[in-house]
Design brief:
about 290 residues, mainly alpha
């Protein structure tokens, strides 16, 4: 099925209304008359990249003739540009794998591919990245999105762990993180500047070796750094646990509790928090000996 809604009977009605034959429509989009006939009878569907040509040949707006639900994803952008997966791959000088992986939500596009694909698709880089989020099942961002939302990129995850995972400890520096990653890999795979670039968002791509080393360096399960826009439930729970415990160590919840029942937390709420803290405490990274 194409990424847009395709109604063969509607195509037939519009075509006939224009007194256009199946062969003429087929010639316009590079297929045979029997292929058009199969489309119109529902025996087959055109590839998504054919839809813009069909709409143009029938003199109809693409969104009117072939509507789609929800925000655009990468497949929709490519198809609306009239490009096949192979043609999109040619744009970035690779095999089909990076394009297919990104469209299916398996692995995000490398930074180097974003600008040329955005240009080929006729969209901005921001629009392409938003479409990539859609391909990975990430809800569209809104103006109300909080900076406390779940981290997705490697750099966001590093910053999150440094902010919330070292309440009673000194968080490691970029140099210390890079050293730990390289020690884990057995060779130099990242520099101090490389870690800094990840943390400030100058680059978002990291090899599997670096991701594994980051998990080791920051004392978390490797699943936290998996190449997945939507965190696995266990990883999301772990990060939210760190943030919750961080608010306690930071005094936010303790300060509220200390105000008294009239304007603070009730005894029941504090009991519930104590129970929750007991369940989550073991998830904090263990302090080194002597800490």
């Amino acid at each position: 099925m194409p990424p847009r809604q395709f109604d063969g009977s509607r195509v037939r009605t519009v075509r006939r209304g224009m007194e256009l034959g199946q062969k003429e429509l087929g010639d316009a989009v590079g297929v045979s008359a029997p292929t058009v006939a199969r489309w119109e009878t529902g025996q087959d569907f055109p590839k998504g990249e054919k839809l813009p040509g069909i709409a143009a040949a029938l003199g109809q707006p693409l969104d009117v003739l072939f509507p789609h639900d929800g925000p655009p994803d990468l497949q929709l952008l490519r198809c609306d540009a009239g490009l096949s997966v192979a043609q999109a791959a040619d744009v970035i000088g690779t095999t089909r794998v990076p394009v297919s992986n990104a469209e299916s939500g398996r692995r995000r596009l490398s930074d180097a591919y974003v600008q040329p694909l955005a240009a080929a698709y006729g969209v901005t880089e921001e629009e392409l990245l938003a479409a990539q989020d859609s391909s990975f099942g990430v809800p569209p961002k809104t103006s109300r999105d909080s900076p406390e939302s779940a981290p997705r990129t490697v750099g966001e995850k590093i910053n999150y762990l440094l902010q919330y995972g070292y309440a009673d400890q000194q968080a490691p520096s970029d140099e210390e993180i890079a050293r730990a990653v390289n020690d884990h890999a057995g060779v130099m795979v990242v520099t101090t500047n490389g870690i800094a670039d990840l943390r400030r968002g100058a680059t978002t791509d990291a090899s599997d070796v670096v991701r594994s080393g980051l998990a080791e360096a920051l004392q978390v399960d490797s699943a936290v750094f998996q190449d997945d826009a939507v965190l696995a439930p266990a990883a999301r729970e772990f990060l939210e646990s760190l943030r919750f415990l961080g608010t306690i160590h930071g005094g936010q919840i303790l300060g509220l509790a200390a105000r008294g029942n009239s304007e603070g937390l009730s005894a029941e709420m504090m009991a519930a928090i104590n129970t929750l803290v007991g369940e989550l405490k073991h998830k904090l990274p263990e302090a080194p000996d002597g800490e």
